[in-house]
Amino acid sequence: MIIVRVAGGLGNQMQQYAMYRKLKSLGKNVKLDLSWFDADNQKGLAAPRQCELKLFKNLPMDICLVDERDKYIKRNVLVKALNKLVPATSKIFEESRMYHPEVLDFEDKYLKGFFLCNKYYADIMPDLQNDFVFPTHSDDRMQKRNEALMEEMMSINGGESVSIHLRRGDYITQKANLDLFGNIATDEYYDAAVSYVLDKSPDAHFYIFSNDPEYAMNKYPDRDRYTIVTGNDGPDSLLDMQLMSKCKYNICANSTFSFWGARLNTRKDKVMIRTYKMRNNQEVQTEPMHDYWQNWVLIDENGIIK
């Protein structure tokens, strides 16, 4: 059996789920471990999380039993010592680089990682697009507004719509996150991405999604060109991802949330734009990145298309 641990925010949960689905597509006996979200495990975390995968409608999931999980993660001192001395004997696999092709050959492992790399599951993306079914908004009026926005995004100026995700909040206020994720989705990055879009679609209209709408309004004040999207908050916040997925162009932050807004985009004419790197402690090389993220436009923090 293979067990995939689910942890982190919604975007990371979706990636771990995508890895689970990829392994299932290969005929593996694989289940998900959701115990990271248990109340005892969430105590003391700077940003407590819930399992938001459950917000999607009827998302198919095989959840492991406690004894199935314990078979892998409960190890005595001797086993831990052996695993440290001979890593190949360990039943626990921990992600340590951007892409681990060996994961796809595992038969008996407990997997810990975020599995961000698009190459893992790009081939099953149509299945994921079909199965990630969004809920309706908790407010009927906001649901109607969202439906009107999606129709507009598909039709405005011949469908030349663009989503821009500005991830701020904890990326700015928490020093650890600022050190890890800051100064990647820079002004230069966004300016270059907007110029790239306008070169191809001069009449494009931009929809701005941010956890700091006041900043977004000040950064993009032209209401004829930019619409600041608000109203999808709390448990309804994942509906911003649904809206992003209806735009022709997706300009992502270094955030898995907006990566999934682009991934779930089923438009044949879509253009996906992302930051060249995700984290400041990440070594990136252009050729592998284009292999890992095929059909994505990569722009670095200096506004240079890679």
Automatic annotation (TrEMBL):
A cellular component annotation (GO) from this entry: membrane
Highest taxon in the source lineage: Bacteria
Pfam families recorded: Glyco_transf_11
Molecular function in Gene Ontology: galactoside 2-alpha-L-fucosyltransferase activity
GO biological process terms on file: carbohydrate metabolic process
UniProt keyword list: Glycosyltransferase, Transferase
Protein name in UniProt: Alpha-1,2-fucosyltransferase
